[in-house]
Design goal:
- With 276 residues, this protein is of the alpha/beta class.
- It has two domains: 99 residues, Conserved hypothetical protein from pyrococcus furiosus pfu- 392566-001, ParB domain, CATH 3.90.1530.10; 146 residues, no CATH class.
- It is 51% helix and 10% strand.
- It is built from ten helices and seven strands.
- The protein has a five-stranded mixed β-sheet with strand order 1-5-3-4-2. Strands 6-7 form a two-stranded parallel ribbon.
- Strand 3 and strand 4 form a beta hairpin.
- The longest helix has 26 residues.
- The chain is elongated, with a radius of gyration of 25 Å.
- The N and C termini lie far apart (50 Å).
């Protein structure tokens, strides 16, 4: 069922509205005319920035690009423009072979451009992974729809946005990244089984560490043969999770093993202690 469209919210006018400045121009600019001012921009040489640029370039689409915010370097020449917002997208467009990009041109000098960059990045509300996931579902993304089905069939609920754990009800799920990783580790059947165990345990909310640990227990050959029943695992998670989590944290300090494996080991040990 498609959600009804909403009008823009009728937000009360602030008591004090600052001068918004001159309206910007909308232009298509050549990428060769764009420059980066390192006095306020983040470096793009770091590995994380390079990965981001490569990911945008590999999936380049105009409907995901958006206009850059730029300012003329020389107010008289208008031949070079400093990128205020969108340097990673600009670099990705260049890597994808794009010649020119849409830009919002503001009349800001260096100090004002730096302030504009700070304001844009301070005031922007980035989409959460949950919001992106629900957008993928609305777009009919097949992988997202399969994951949604697995979660729903397990009797759990995918929240639309994050909320504090104390406000969650049993069966609430927020850890989209963990679900995707667990599906890659244990497949659809393994993830379904893990989520069914967490539903029976009344997890509120379902935690990423629990998902990682259970799917490792289900998928790893070293534990598969001696794995306790799903009912036993659900009882342990419901009654002893805090102790298991604390023991896993200590094991991680001692061994430097991944957190998911540490939790899997401690769940297995708790199951062995509980065995008759």
């Amino acid at each position: 069922m498609t959600a009804p469209l909403r009008s823009l919210p009728d937000t009360p006018r602030p008591q004090r509205v600052p001068d918004p400045g001159d309206p910007p121009d909308l232009q298509w600019l050549s990428l060769t005319s764009l420059v980066i001012d390192p006095s306020y921009q983040r470096p793009t040489e770091e590995r994380a920035a390079r990965r981001l640029i490569a990911r945008i370039a590999e999936g380049f689409r105009w409907d995901r690009f958006g206009a850059l915010t730029v300012a003329p370097v020389d107010a008289d020449a208008f031949d070079r423009f400093a990128v205020i917002d969108g340097q990673h997208r600009a670099a990705a467009a260049r890597a994808a072979g794009i010649a020119s990009v849409p830009c919002v041109v503001v009349g800001a000098k260096t100090a004002a451009a730096a302030a504009a960059w700070a304001g844009i990045n301070r005031d922007r509300r980035n989409a959460t992974s949950l919001q992106v996931f629900h957008a993928e579902i609305a777009a009919g993304d097949p992988e997202a729809m399969v994951l949604e089905r697995i979660v729903t069939e397990a009797g759990l609920r995918l929240l639309r946005s994050p909320r504090p754990a104390k406000e969650c009800r049993p069966g609430d799920v927020m850890c989209i990244g963990a679900l995707k990783a667990a599906r890659a580790t244990a497949g659809d059947a393994g993830l379904s089984r893990a989520l069914a165990i967490l539903a029976a345990a009344g997890a509120a909310p379902v935690k990423a560490l629990q998902v990682h640990a259970l799917t490792l227990l289900i998928a790893a050959p070293e534990w598969r043969e001696d794995l306790p029943t799903d009912a036993t695992l659900a009882r342990l998670l419901a009654e002893e999770w805090e102790a298991i989590e604390d023991a896993a944290a200590l094991r991680r300090i001692d061994t430097d093993e991944p957190s998911g494996r540490c939790a899997a080991v401690e769940i297995w040990r708790a199951a062995q202690r509980a065995a008759p």
